[in-house]
Amino acid sequence: MKSAILQTATRYLLPILLLFSFFLLLRGHYYPGGGFVGGLVASIAFVLHSFANGTENTMKILRYKPLSLIPIGLAVSAVSVTFPLLLGFPPMTGLWFEEPIPVIGMIGSALFFDLGVYLVVIGVVLTILFTIALND
Amino acid sequence: MIDNHILAPIFVQLFTAIIQLMFWRKTLTQRYLSVGGSLVGLMVAFRLFGRVKESGILTLNAANWDAPFGIVFVADLLSVTLVLLTSIACFAVSIFSSVGLSRQRMLYGYFPIFHFLIMGLHGAFLTGDIFNLYVYFEVIIISSFVLMTLGGRKAQLEGAVKYMAMNILASMFFLTGIGILYGITGSLNMADLSIRIQEVQNKALIGITSCFFIIGFGIKSAVFPLYYWLPSSYHTPPSAVAATFGGLLTKVGIYAMLRVFSLIFVPDEFTRTLLMVIAVLTILTGAFGALIKTNIRRLFSYLIVCHIGFMVGGIAMFSKIALMGAVFYLIHDIMVKTNMFLIAGLIRQLGGTMDMGKLGGLYRDYPKISLLIAIVLFSLVGIPPLSGFWPKIFLFQEAFAQHQYFYVAALIIGSFVTLYVIAKMWSEVFWKNPPTEEEIDNRFAPMPPYKKILMVLPIALLALVTLYIGLNAEAIVKVADTISTQLIDPSAYIDAVLGNKTD
Amino acid sequence: MELLLVLILGLLYAAGVYLILRRSMVKLLLGIILWGNGANILIFVLGKITKGSPPVIDGAYKVFQDVYADPIPQALILTAIVISFGLTSFAIVLLKRVYALVDSDDLDDLNTPEEEDI
Description:
Helix content of chain A is about 70%, strand content about 0%. By secondary structure, chain A is mainly alpha-helical. The longest helix of chain A has 26 residues, at about 110-135. The two termini of chain A are about 15 Å apart. Chain B has helices spanning about 10-20, 25-55, 75-100, 105, 110-125, 130-150, 155-185, 190-200, 205-220, 240-265, 270-290, 295-315, 320-350, 360-365, 365-380, 390-400, 405-430, 450-470, 475-490, 490-500, and strands at about 60, 70-75. Chain B is globular. Chain C has one domain: Helix Hairpins (Orthogonal Bundle), CATH 1.10.287. Chains in contact: A-B, A-C, B-C.
């Protein structure tokens, strides 16, 4: 599908959607949002790009295979889950830095868990979509 | 008692899988990592088993939330026994698959998915929260879908569709049941549910809810009217995968039944009768199905169904001795069934086919391997003093005490049919002279010696465990005795989970 | 509101069962999806719906000041949605592969005799 309107719109929408997905990721701990939703929005941004410009071009701007995001995301999540064990707490206990950090806000192990989920969701969704799209 | 390390078996499998994903397409590294990770997992499971046996039930409150509110993980003797057996089976299968699997399948990520599957099994055994049990069931079935379809040809993918449809259906029943259960009681913690469900006035509603769980777990464990997906899909994937499925996946359904029906829905007269009817019919249909099959793996698939019935019967009688029999049979069955499918894979390598008519003369060519296989087959049949014999004593004893003569008859028929089909298989595959007109495609002989050893070693390892279970039955009976005491009287479990509130 | 949701979930279950009983693979998939959504609404309804008071504490307080919605059903539904998302996308890929191999949408055609394979 070639459409000049969609292609032009996507050029601006892709960064905005990615920024929005990051916003959802960061506000997820106390408000609606989080890693899963953020990851879905980010992958939808790339899906939109592949609608407008073709799947090959989307794969080109991604450079790396989306599959390689899955182990990274899983590792980030798994480490943030097991890290409290080293301090003598049960796994998954929320650990927080004392002081909030500008822009991002409070940083804790839950944020890293969400970050891992975010990466895994992008990896899984894009892998599945590319598999379906390229098999035709 | 709170112990923050009971999740170690889960984390070992999780990290093994993640590290393997980082070595995507490097199959040699993945093989080393898989065997190494399984070995570490086995040691961790042994340690956990020892600790629970010594100091009683251990719990863990995930994220430091107190018991009925957060997710709780509980390691009682039943859980850790199954975790230990799963780890042993995982170790054996991972050695076997490092030589018994085509490289193409490994490239598609067989090993990481296999370890995710084992992680799901460990999680299902250790969790004390019913929704978490559902989540681990989903981890198991998603991994098993991938394993089922991996690098698949036509027959394998067709089997996978049936497998997928039935298992998703089972999950939906399970989820619906959980939803209603939460609506009735307002809790998801199994120990808490056990207390709250007794305060509910509307017993009929609870009976209906328990039917959702019977159907959900019934599909997973392949009992009578719901079993047909199993024989039509288990013979399609590679033998290493079929070993994991046949040995472990149906047994998760039995574990879930044991847990849910001992803690939450203590069986009343109706449930017992229902389970007993299901058990008898499962044994009979499984046995009759096994009679007519000539393909080894199809035969074993029907034997799985048949022997699931033995355990469901034990749950149906729901007394201390019956549960002892069911638990002992579960322990025996996991080891033997895993081994049976590995043996099917080995026979396929030796004789080039799994059709009994086209095989023959294996005893003449490989007497040592045949004797090793004979041990496993005898254990399966239940020749005294081997492992299949002991649990049946308890089941018979209790069935006579409760006047369940249909079950007694089914047990006898099931055992004799098992004996008959195994004897038939033995004479066809091992004693009969090979059919002369057909070329035998022996893939075992040209293998380098280390590969031959790696192929036989896991079978020998599992056979050794089976021998231990049979010859040292006293130790297993003691374990089964403690487990069934805990199942009949769950107050120890409830105290261990909810008692922490006051500390 | 509750009555409406109950009717919808009954409809979803019924439609799901009907579609699952058909012979087409695609209808099987659609049936499973509808049934999954029905189960989610069931959990939502059973969690006692409370209008307009989400379980989010205002920044100024430490504890809840009045009646609030039960957050657990929402957590359960969210988990169930994530899981069914994974299952559905896998099922679509699988059914597409099977369709390409078998060249039929009919579940009764899935009976190729076993190929020997280890």
